[in-house]
Amino acid sequence: MGLFEYIFDYMYYMYNIVQNMGTSYSQTRINCGHIVVVGGGYAGANLAYKLKDRADITIISDTPYFFHSLAALRASVEKGFAKKITIPLKDIFGDKLKVGKVTGIDTNTKTISLENGESVKYDVLVLATGSNGVLPCQTEPKTTPEEVHTVYDTYVDKVAAARNIVIVGGGPVGVEMAGELGTDFKDKSITLIHANDNLVSPHYTAKNRKDVQKILEQMGVTVILGDKVTNLEQLNKDGATTVETSGGKQIPTDLVIPCIGLTTRRDAYESSLGDKMDSFGRLKVDEYFNVIGCEDVFAIGDCCNTDEPKMALNGMEHAKCIVANFANKTSGKPLKKYNAGFIMMGISIGRNVGFGQKGTSSTIPGFIIKMLKSRDLMTGKTWSDFGLKQPK
Fold first, then answer.
1. Which CATH number fits domain 20-139+262-341: 1.10.8.100, 3.30.70.120, 3.50.50.60, 1.10.10.10?
2. How far is residue 365's CA from residue 154's CA, in Å, rounded to a whole number?
3. What's the pTM?
4. Which residues in the chain come in under a pLDDT of 70?
C-alpha cells in the first residue's frame, strides 16, 4: 500500500468512528415495548440517542448531563474548558429523560426503583452504568453542570500553583495527563510513576509503548516504570507531600494526580443482580449482551464483562450492536453476535501530538490522531453528534 492509500485508509476509518459516535438512526420502527436505558454515559447516551426516534424509550441518569470524560484532563489545565465537557441530557432527550438514582431492579415484575420512591416499568432493560473515577479523570456526580465547571476551574488553579507534580499511573489516562501538563506547563517538574514495565496498554506493541515514552521524555516528563507508589492513600493530594515507592524512592511534590483505580458503577444493580456479577462487579453477559439468567435485561459499556479494554469506543460499539439486534428482533432476522476485542486506541499527548494503534499491531499516523482528537479532544464533534452546538 502506498503512502497516500495508507493515510486515506486510516483517515476514512477514523472518520467513520467519530461519525457514528452519536448518530441518530431513523430507519424502521423498533417494536420491543418500553425500553429503559440506565446510564447517561458513552454507552447509554449513544444507545438512547440511536433509539429515541425509533422506539418507546426512557433514559435514566443520576446526573442531568453527559460527562465527556475523554476531555476531562484538558479541563484540568485550561480554565473555562469544563463547560465543553458537560452536555445537558434534557437538550438531547427532552421528556424521555428521567434524572434519578436507581436503587433496585425487580426482574419478576420488570420494575425499576428510584431513590426518590418513584418506580419505572420496562419491557426491555439496558444497564450502562459505566465506571467511577477520581479527579481529574472524573468527578463525583453533581446536581448541575455549573457545579462541575467550578470543580475543574478550581483544579486548574491547583495545577497552576504547583511546581512539582507527580502522576500516579501510566495507562492511557496517565499518559494523556502527562501530555496535557507537559504541553501547557513547561516550567513545571512532572514525574509519571507506573507500576508496570511499559506505558499505555498491553494491547500496544512494544515499539509503540517505547515511542510514547520517548515523546513524554522529550516533553520533559520524568518517567519511572516498574515502581509502585506505596503511600497513595495517605498522601495529601492537594498540597506539599512526599511520594514513596516500592523501589525506595522518595519524591517531594506539590500535587499528586492519581490516574488509576477506575471501578465499576454497580449501585444500580448490586442489590438486585449481585449473583450475576463477576469479581470486578461487572455483569456477566452473553455474546448478545443479555445478562446471563435475566430475560430482557442487557448490560453494555464498562458494566458488562466482555473480554476487552473498557473504553468509550467499545461502549459505543456495544450500543450499535444492541440497536441492530433490537431491529433484527422486530423484523424476525437472526441476531448479531458481538465480537469482543481491541479495536483501536488513539492517545492525545497534549494539544499538538497524537499517537494511535489499530488492532494489535498497526500504528496510526500521529497527525491523524492530532487532527481528530488532540486538537479539542473531540468536544465539538461530541456536541454535534447529539444534535447540539458546543459552547464557546
1. 3.50.50.60
2. 35
3. 0.90
4. 1-26, 342
